[in-house]
Amino acid sequence: MIPGNVDPRRPDKVQRYKAPQANGNAPVEDLTPDYMNILGMVFSMCGLMMRLKWCAWVALYCSCISFANSRISDDTKQILSSFMLSISAIVMSYLQNPQPMTPPWATAVN
């Protein structure tokens, strides 16, 4: 049994936390903005070419995620072009068919 006034902790065994590093001194890079940017471009092109409104909206969503997760040192031209492409996909799909969007699962055959 441990007496009441003895501290069982061992301060000489405490190690300070260090964030994991990929290779050497370089910090781990988050690739989420890059993936979302590519997905935004792909969905924008699908929305433009196939006239799918839901693809255009998903593209805008991916562009917003890419912008929110980007660093200040990232290429702003690529993020801006992704936004503009997704906005143009939305505008063009609604100019061609101004009816409200029907989700793909709601077009089932009766």
UniProtKB/TrEMBL annotation:
Transmembrane segments: none annotated. It comes from the Eukaryota. The keyword Transmembrane helix applies. It holds the Pfam family ASTER. Its main location: membrane. It is found in: Membrane. Keywords: Membrane, Transmembrane, Transmembrane helix. Residues 1-25 are annotated as: Disordered. Belongs to the Asterix family. PANTHER family: CGI-140, PAT COMPLEX SUBUNIT ASTERIX. This is Protein Asterix. The lineage of its organism: Eukaryota, Metazoa, Ecdysozoa, Arthropoda, Hexapoda. The gene is LOC108563031.
